[in-house]
Amino acid sequence: MDKPRIHMTRNGIVVVAEEEPSSLTVVIVVCLRAGSIYAPKPGLAHFLEHVVFDGSVSYPSQGALRNLFKNIGARRNGTTSSEWVRYWIQCLPEHLDSALEWLHEVVARPLLNEESVTREREIISTERRRADSEASSCLTRLIYQELFRNHPYSWAVLGELEDIQSMSRNDVGTFYADAYTINNMVLSVVGPMGSTDRVLSTLDERDYFGELSIGKLYPYTCPPLEISVTPVFAHFSGISQALLSVIWPLFGWSDERWHTAAVLRDIYQERLYQRLREELGWVYSISSGLSCSYEGGSISAGSAVRSDRASQTAVIMIQELEKLAFHGVTSGEIDVARNGAEMTYATDTVDVVDHAQGNAYEFLFARSIRGREVNLYRYLAVEAGEVSEIAKMIESQGPPLIAVVSSDLSEANF
Predict the structure, then answer these.
(1) Helix or strand or coil: residue 61?
(2) Residue 385, SS3?
(3) pLDDT for 340
(4) How far is CA 204 from the centre of its chain?
(5) 91 CB contacts (<8 Å, ≥6 apart)?
(6) Residue 412: its pLDDT value, please?
(7) 52, 182, 216, 367 - which has most CB atoms within 10 Å?
(8) Among residues 243, 414, 399, 229, which one has the least CA distance to residue 321?
């Protein structure tokens, strides 16, 4: 596979194009620095993402715009995070023209009318209530509110119910005009041989996205994490187990050591699985993750566990990271992590949606792209001593944040 190519259309849109010969479909993604941290009020970025699907200049009804992709059997969606919003469509190569037209209508020509805003207030309020009924969503909100406190990163991407109900057409239109600009977006395409060239030529021939203003590239800064020295709790009725997470601050993926941190995460998760599931039988599954933005992030471990074992489980999670810091990792663990990375690379090649979205995100924030093969090479080159050094750095920062959601656990008995 060749490294992704960077192309600029006549109207200034940056396109990251990569051919994937094994793929039978084409994926086109538009990614903008227009997530919730950039919006003037909580929930606005996500609200706008909904409204753009409700009709466009050429397809003024929601049904007409939907039929444009349904009639060609395409898949499509939009997603909003703290940092970005993205829109994507996946189709067979013979339907590229219709797919590009749909993406252009959604991103560059939405109506954003009062009727759509009124309808989406109710739809998104339902989405908010559903999230409020999920214990895992409660845990995520607890963590972000504690780590980022007074920064927009602490905002729920959906917003609170009062935020959603107060959204106006003026809110939506003003943020759209400011954030949906040429300098603030990247288009990514991944598909079989010849398909990426067709996308590039069509973008220029039809001047797609030319309606957007040049605008500015939104600045990006990740605030330092604020780690509480005492655990934080949220009560959630009706769940039979506690949801537990431990979180340490970490650098972002712009740091050259990010690949080493990824190896550490994989080894750490395997050790926790062996200890908490295979030896003790306390948990069904363990997750360990890197939550990384371009400039900053965290490494974490989490699981669902009986409330009376939550405290002990948190201690074990901390102890296992300390062991990695002070006793290092084995060559066998490094080999297992490398084999897992190669398998992930091989299977992810099939998922062209994730592939295209990853390319868009990387260029949007780094303004360059390494490509998946370079990332794999760097992962495979990580040595055991480097992993131990990252573990020591994390451990030296002090105790992690411990976050717990439970129906029958309090700080007093943790």
Answers:
(1) coil
(2) helix
(3) 87
(4) 30
(5) 25, 26, 69, 72, 73, 74, 75, 98, 99
(6) 45
(7) 52
(8) 399
The three-state DSSP-derived secondary structure of 226-254 is: CCCCCCEEEECCCCCCEEEEEEEEEECCC
Token digits for 121? 């207030």
Residues lower than pLDDT 50 in the chain: 412
DSSP state letter for 277: I
- Residue in the structure block whose two tokens are 């396109």: 15
The string of DSSP codes covering 175-186 is HHHHHS-GGGEE
Sort residue 288 into left (φ over 0), alpha (ψ -120 to 50) or beta. beta
For residue 323, give both structure tokens.
């062991």
Amino acid at site 340: G
In terms of residues, how long is the chain? 414
Would you state the structure tokens that stand for residue 252, as one six-digit string? 């972002």
CA distance 305 to 316: 13
Would you state the structure tokens that stand for residue 86, as one six-digit string?
């993205």
Residue 118: partners with Cβ closer than 8 Å, 6 or more residues away: none
